[in-house]
Design a protein that fits this description.
Layout lengths: L10 H14 L13 H13 L1 H12 L10 H16 L5 H12 L5 H18 L1
Helix pairs in contact: 1-2, 1-4, 2-4, 3-6, 4-5, 4-6, 5-6
Length: 130
């Protein structure tokens, strides 16, 4: 994992970190520090975990030729799931903002080729689920 010189306090970076932490330690309770985005982060993290199967089914339905979730990097998969959750259930956020925020946040975790792939996947699924 390449750590780039970015600020790690944006809500979507924290969402990705919480989801990854849950993947590594599924029995550990997820806690959220006091923050102006606490409710938003909690909604996205818990919503993504609660609707994981539904999100996966939607991804497979709309992107069956573009992505193989069994072979996809776990971190990339987490980012895709969180973004798809927001696209499907957080209609107060414009889809272009959601995509650009996750692409920006992914620069903290992923390599350039993965970031471009993420952008293409999110762009394509956003047209189908919204």
């Amino acid at each position: 994992m390449i750590k780039k010189n970015k600020q790690s306090s944006t809500p979507r970076i924290k969402i990705i970190q919480k989801l990854y932490s849950n993947l590594l330690n599924p029995d550990e309770k997820i806690t959220f520090q006091k923050n102006q985005y606490k409710k938003f982060m909690k909604d996205v993290v818990t919503g993504t975990l609660e609707r994981k199967e539904f999100i996966e089914q939607s991804i497979l339905e709309h992107l069956k030729d573009d992505i193989d979730l069994n072979k996809t990097d776990k971190l990339l998969k987490i980012i895709i799931f969180a973004a798809v959750f927001e696209l499907m259930f957080k209609h107060n956020n414009p889809k272009n903002v959601i995509i650009s925020e996750y692409v920006k946040s992914s620069e903290f975790f992923l390599e350039d080729a993965q970031i471009k792939y993420l952008n293409a996947i999110l762009d394509k699924i956003s047209k189908k689920v919204r």
